[in-house]
Structures are given as structure tokens and as C-alpha cells.
Amino acid sequence: MYSCVKSYGIGGIDAYAVTVEVTLNRAIPSFDIVGLPDAAIKESRLRVQSAITHAGYEMPVAKITVNLAPASQKKSGPVFDLPIFLAVMAASEQLFHSYDQALPEDAAFVGELSLSGAVRPVNGVLSMAIQAKQDGITSLFVPAQNAKEASIVEGLDVYPVSDVSELFSHFNGQAPIQPLPFDPTMILEGSNHFDADLSQVRGQSFAKRALEIAAAGGHNLLLLGPPGTGKSMLAKRLPSILPRLSFMEAIETTRIYSVAGLLPPDHPIMNSRPFRSPHHTVSPVGLTGGGSNPMPGEISLAHNGVLFLDELPEFQRQALEVLRQPIEDNQVTISRASSRVTYPCSMMFVAAMNPCPCGYRGHPQIACTCSEAAVHKYISRVSGPLLDRIDLHVEVAPVAFEELSGESREETSAQVRQRVEAARRIQEERFAGTAITCNARIPAGTLNQMCPLEDSALEFLRRSFEGLGMTARTYDRVVKVARTIADLDGSDIIRKSHIAEALAYRTLDQKYWYENR
Ligand SMILES: Nc1ncnc2c1ncn2[C@@H]1O[C@H](COP(=O)(O)OP(=O)(O)O)[C@@H](O)[C@H]1O
Ligand SMILES: [Mg+2]
């Protein structure tokens, strides 16, 4: 006896169709699963067996062979419990009351089973729903706790299942499960609400301006200064001045969290920009993703948001070096012996650091206690190539007492965000019809065309280029930052003042890094 059930697996953040086939043969009873299963799938056997008997049905006394097709694709996780269960029940003719009934062709099933037959949540259901829709599936049966995230896919009936017994009642017409209605509103609900507001940071107008430029053009940012000057405070407030997530961005980010199993159960949609701030003890794999059962890392969890590395020199050197390529490419590829997965990681990279181990180098009031060698060692943990990939270098100075205690009113995040959004609209027009998303991502080949400089600006840049010994990469970054400054200014052409301001964010490497070499 034979039956087959459609299901979905996850590779990277994409889902792929899997057909679960079951045959029952008269032979010595056994239960085998083939088709490149991992350990979790092999254990399905025990869960399925237990769920069948617990639900009051009979475990077929037969040689049971389960095949997960396509057999070439390595499969992982417990998501195939439910389809294996159904296929065994169908093959042993226990699922339906009458013989002329069969599972619908256009239905697919995913879910982990508990020993008692309860259906437990699995990772990656949103991606599965998107793929199922593309494959022409009309009914997707998912664990009840995952149903909400799948319901943002239009044109797909999502059936929440919390126990295998519900499936029997459903297919036999006794108690049909109600599909969840399509619900795109979850994406809009509560978006752009941030507890931390930029107005809570007093003074620091130079750093705030840099934060605004970074947000407006999608530029990477380094904040350097003594402890207690508000570096961490500023970085945490960056998401609050970024433009709202678009519908597509919200879906992309949600897919990553779904695959990582990190969606909040009560509101399983990521509808505001993520802010990830891993501790400096994070491993290279924790940062970029990977592992024997690959999972997205911090850079991907920051997709469409901000990755903040506080106390940058404290991170493992190796962890920082593996960041270089994903920062440029906006995606990270993890190669394993048996497979290759790619995770998107289009994020703003923000880092903060002290100027030396004690933190007070160059402080106007407090004396630094570090030796030159210690300072050099500390600074050089951040390599030149990594530094080169950061567009804006900002020195955050101690705040004056008057600024902290004064009555001056600071601008709110909402006010700054308006200017950021205006600058982004200009960029949208500029990049219409291309894959470019913001100024920071202008490819070198189109830089001249998209960033016209007035003559005096070009001349000023040429003199600075020679005077400061800039590299070609630094040149590109200065022009892109100047492009954003001009956009904030509403100017088509990049003027000398825009170049001058952009150059002001390139002085740190001269001051701290190169003099140290
Ligand atoms: N510019 C500022 N405005 C208001 N409070 C500040 C400012 N700078 C520092 N603080 C206070 O000092 C604390 C430490 O700031 P933090 O951002 O952690 O500094 P850093 O990261 O530069 O060491 C904050 O929680 C805040 O209470
Ligand atoms: Mg800090």
C-alpha cells in the first residue's frame, strides 16, 4: 500500500517542496526513513509511532518505508513528522471513513509532533507558505502557533492544526478546521514605535548629524570617544530615525526570524527595523551564521536594520574579519561539505569604541593611563580594511555640563526622520529601475554619473585626496557621503561644502590609525 503527502523543507531562507512517500509491505515489521534525513528526522519514527497509538489508532504491522523526495537534497529538522504521520495513516487506510476519499492534491503539511500527537511549532513557515503559493498549493496545514505568520501570504488557505486528532475530524467532515483569513494588517500594526528617542541624547550635535547622514544614505558608521559620552545611546536610537520598513522588507526580515525560530509568538511579524547588538564574546559563526545545521547569524538577523558592535576592539579579531565580505555583498554564503546556503544581510553596520584601553586618550579633563604600545595594540585590533568599509568616522566628545543640565530642547526622532525620509525619496527617484537601494550602495561604475560635482568641489576633493593620501576606496566613500549630504540639502549637484562635510568624517583614521603604524 502506498500514499504520498506534500510538504516543505528549508534551505537558507528559502523553502523547497518535499514529497513524503510511504509504502507498507508485508514483511518483518520495520520503519525506515530514506532520502538524506538528518538525526532529527530519523527520530520522527519514534514520535510518529507514539502519536499514532496515543491518538487511538493502530501502528501498521508491516515493513514501512518512508522516502523524502527529492532524495538528493539533504533534509533537516522535525518538520516532516506531520506529513509522515498522515502518509502512514493514509497508506494503512485509517485516515478516512470511506475508501473513495483521498488527501487533496493541492494541500501540503508541515509540523513537528509530540509523543501525544500535539502539533508543535516549526521554523521557516512563512517561507514555506510563500513557496507553496508559488507551487500552486491552495491549502497549507501548519502548527497552530505558526499559522499567523503564514496568514500574510495572499491566496493561500492556512489551516492551524494543534493536534493530529483535528486532522481526522477535518478530513472526515465532522469538524472542519477553519482556515485563517489573509491578514496583511499585522505588518502595519505598531510599526515604528521606539521606546528610545533621539531627544533623550543631549548635546552631541556633531554625532547626531552623522547619525542623520548615515540614516539618510544607508552608510556604515563608527563612533569613537571616551566612555559615558553617549555612543551606545546614540547607536540604539538609529532605528528610530530610519524610514519605515516597506511591506517587502518586513516580509524579508520576518522570513529570517522565522527560519531562526525567533519570531515573537504573540506578534509573529517583524514590522520595525531590527537592532542587533551582540556581545563581544560572540563567535564568528554566531555573527555570520552557519553551524552544522545552518542558522542565520547576527548580521542576517539585522537584515534591513542595524548591526551594532559596541566596544569594537573587544571582539575576536577573526569575528571582525569575517564581517568584511558580507558588509560589502549584503549577503553571506555558508559552505558546508553537503550543502551551501546563502542568507541576506543588507544592514547598516554601526560600531562604537573607546580611543584606548582606559578610554580617556585625548580627554580634555581626565588623563589617559595607557602606554603608547597598549594604545597601538588596542587600536590595531580594528584592521585597516574593516575601517575602510565604514563611511562615517565620528569622534564623540565629552558633553559639557551646561549641555547636560541645560533646558535646551533636543530634536525628536520623528523630526529627524522626516528629513531622512525626504532624502530617501530623492534616492528612490535616482535609483528607479535599478537594484540600488541607497547612496551607500552606488556601484563604482556609476559613481560619476550619479554624483555630479561642481568644479570647485572636484578641485577641493582632488587637493584633499593628495594631501590626505586617500585610497580609491576612501575616495568613493567620501563622494557617496557627500551625495547624501547634498540630498539632505535638496541639491542635485554636489557642492564644495558637501565635500568638506563628508571629509570631516574621514579624519579619525588619520588621527588614530595611521599615526599608529
Ligand atoms: N549626551 C548625553 N545625553 C544624555 N545622557 C547621556 C549622554 N551621554 C551619556 N549619557 C548618560 O550616560 C550613560 C552612559 O552613556 P553611554 O551611551 O552608555 O556612553 P558610552 O557608550 O559612550 O560609554 C547613559 O545611560 C546616559 O544616562
Ligand atoms: Mg557604550
Q: How would you describe what is shown here?
A:
The protein has 517 residues and is α/β, with parallel strands linked by helices. The chain has two domains: 2-183, Ribosomal Protein S5, domain 2 (2-Layer Sandwich); 198-516, Rossmann fold. 37% of the residues lie in helices and 17% in strands. Helix 8 (205-217) runs parallel beside helix 18. The structure holds adenosine-5'-diphosphate (ADP) and magnesium ion (MG). Adenosine-5'-diphosphate (ADP) is lined by residues 201-204, 227-233, 352, 399.
The tally of structural domains comes to: 2
Largest sheet: 5 strands, parallel
Overall number of strands: 18
Q: In angstroms, what separates the terminal alpha carbons?
A: 75 Å
Query: Strand percentage, roughly?
Result: 15-25%
* CATH architectural name of the largest domain: 3-Layer(aba) Sandwich
Number of helices: 23
Helix content: 25-40%
Q: What is bound: which ligands?
A: adenosine-5'-diphosphate, magnesium ion
Fourth-level CATH superfamily of the largest domain = P-loop containing nucleotide triphosphate hydrolases
Supply Rg: 28 Å
Q: Categorize the overall geometry.
A: elongated
Q: Regarding CATH, which class of the largest domain?
A: Alpha Beta
The CATH topology of the largest domain is what?
Rossmann fold
Helix/strand-derived category reads alpha/beta
Unreliably modeled segments: none
| pLDDT averaged residue by residue | 90
Major beta sheet, strand line-up? 11-14-17-10-18
Kindly report the oligomeric state of this protein.
single chain
